[in-house]
């Protein structure tokens, strides 16, 4: 079967750094996406990795290792508005997006 | 401003009734998708369409139907055959093609069936 695993919930402190991990087993791999979703709202695109390595975008970075089936999202200088769920999704070789259940990130002052 | 609209945001229906959720986009995207989101679970694909007048079943299509008569519109009907229809429904669109393209999401419709 195909599955995406992420921690259910994480807590971090404002101003700190947090790493959200994602491991995947899918039928092939075309790319990996990270989305942010605030409670009751639509997911919004954060980043996209196709090749191994780190992609940096301001306070957010995403890393991919295809050989290990592993990615992480790194959030720096955490702000209260970063409290949200972070969804990992992999596009498989059939061009289908397989979604993880999301990691709820709680930021404390 | 381009985007995706879904209406209504909240919808209440009695069991046994069909209900249609609307989804409109003005991003000129060829591909459109319907997902269902339940607490503690990832997004699950109901139906998708890569081009007008064509659509494909996703992982959980039973009890749902769609149409794609116009590029901009992809309405979803939740029929009385859907055993557990109460959920948050998200519509999305993207560029169609072989490269992975990000999906843009509408604000969602929360459907409650009692």
Output the structural class of chain A. mainly beta
End-to-end C-alpha gap of chain A: 40 Å
Distance between the termini of chain B: 36 Å
Proportion of beta-strand residues of chain B: over 45%
Mean pLDDT of chain A, nearest integer? 95
How many β-strand stretches of chain B?
A: 11
Oligomer state equals heterodimer
Q: Tell me the major beta sheet of chain A.
A: 6 strands, mixed
Could you say which overall geometry of chain B the principal axes of the C-alpha atoms support?
globular
Q: Which ranges of chain A are low-confidence, i.e. pLDDT below 50, for 5 or more consecutive residues?
A: none
Mean pLDDT of chain B: 92
Sequence of secondary-structure elements of chain B: EEEEEEEEEEE
Most residues in contact, chain pair and counts: A-B, 24 and 20 residues
Q: Radius of gyration of chain B, rounded?
A: 13 Å
Give an overview of the whole structure.
The complex is a heterodimer of chains A (109) and B (114). With 109 residues, chain A is mostly beta strands. Chain A has strands at residues 3-5, 9-13, 18-25, 31-37, 44-49, 53-57, 60-65, 70-75, 84-91, 97-99, 103-108. In chain A, strands 2, 4, 5, 9, 10 and 11 form a 6-stranded mixed beta sheet that branches. In chain A, strands 1-3-8-7-6 form a 5-stranded antiparallel beta sheet, with no helix packed on it. In chain A, a hairpin with a 5-residue loop joins β9 (84-91) and β10 (97-99). Chain A is globular and about 40 Å long. In chain A, 36% of the residues are buried. Chain B has 114 residues and is mostly beta strands. In chain B, strands 2, 4, 5, 6, 9, 10 and 11 form a 7-stranded mixed beta sheet that branches. In chain B, β5 (44-51) and β6 form a beta hairpin. Chain B starts with a strand and ends with a strand.
Layout of SSEs?
The complex is a heterodimer of chains A (109) and B (114).
Chain A lengths: L2 E3 L3 E5 L4 E8 L5 E7 L6 E6 L3 E5 L2 E6 L4 E6 L8 E8 L5 E3 L3 E6 L1
Parallel strand pairs in A: 2-11
Antiparallel strand pairs in A: 1-3, 3-8, 4-5, 4-9, 6-7, 7-8, 9-10, 9-11
Chain B lengths: L3 E4 L2 E4 L5 E7 L5 E7 L6 E8 L2 E4 L6 E3 L9 E3 L8 E8 L9 E2 L3 E5 L1
Parallel strand pairs in B: 2-11
Antiparallel strand pairs in B: 1-3, 3-8, 4-5, 4-9, 5-6, 7-8, 9-10, 9-11
